[in-house]
Amino acid sequence: MTYLEFQFTIYPLQPASDILIAELSEIGFESFVEQESGLIAYISEANIDKNSLANLYILSSTEFKIDWTSKLVKQQNWNAEWEKGFKPIIVDNRCMVRGPFHQKSDSDYDIVIEPKMSFGTGHHETTYMMLSHILDNDFNGKTVLDMGCGTGVLAILAEMRGASYIEAIDIDNWCYLNSVENIERNGSNKIKVFEGNSSLLSRRKYDIILANINRNTLLEDIPIYASCLDRNAFLFLSGFYLSDLDMISKKCSAHNLQFEKKLEKNNWVAAKYVF
């Protein structure tokens, strides 16, 4: 499979970079590398829609100057490019997310991730905050769903935190395969990975659902998540901006999910709801 690499030069960098990531995610871009001068974004050549790209709001905004170039890149080259810029991250001084080529840490939770073309290394604010939520909440003996699992990093930490059974689901085949690889890499044995969307959730029940996707998908799927939660269960949502929180919370409230707490990072939000 061949991917397109887009190099965006952005000025001023924020909040334009975050807005661009959100808009590119909506039209099929799968992975992002943030840089001091802008952003690198990847999408399968088969999925590119040049009209949708040209019509992105952020590219026509007069508030920012954004230039971009693109080139073809073979998938097998991704790991080498990623290794050049990937540095381990530490979440709340308790959890390290690192590549297999980094030295093992003495953190409470040491997670090895090789993302390839998948989203979820912990570098993006939403993944970081979801990891933080997992660290701050009781997962011992819980059944968990990681919806839109990407690299599988949230599911892996959930198992490390004591979850008894986890299901990880992603609609993208590459993410499905990558999650399987990372789960094996971390010696996780309580996680089952599925390829698909929320249609797989019929008649399933969980104590905790983690969904780090995007605003529109969350709004569509919140009723399904609510139907899959047992009483006193938790729903953690991210992938949206602070300005979207009221909209998300209103949708949750309509399905008996009550807002409890939020984390904020660079205008991104990760919220906790109780069923």
Describe this structure in words.
It comes from Croceitalea rosinachiae. Pfam families: PrmA. Keywords: Cytoplasm, Methyltransferase, Ribonucleoprotein, Ribosomal protein, S-adenosyl-L-methionine, Transferase. This is Ribosomal protein L11 methyltransferase. The structure is a single chain. Strands 10-9-8-11-12-14-13 form a seven-stranded mixed beta sheet, with helices on both faces. It has a four-stranded antiparallel beta sheet with strand order 2-3-1-4, with helices on both faces. It has nine helices and 14 strands. The protein has two domains: about 1-80, Alpha-Beta Plaits, CATH 3.30.70; about 125-275, Vaccinia Virus protein VP39 (Rossmann fold), CATH 3.40.50. The mean pLDDT is about 90. The longest helix is centred in the middle third of the chain and has 13 residues, at about 175-185. With about 280 residues, the chain is α/β, with parallel strands linked by helices.
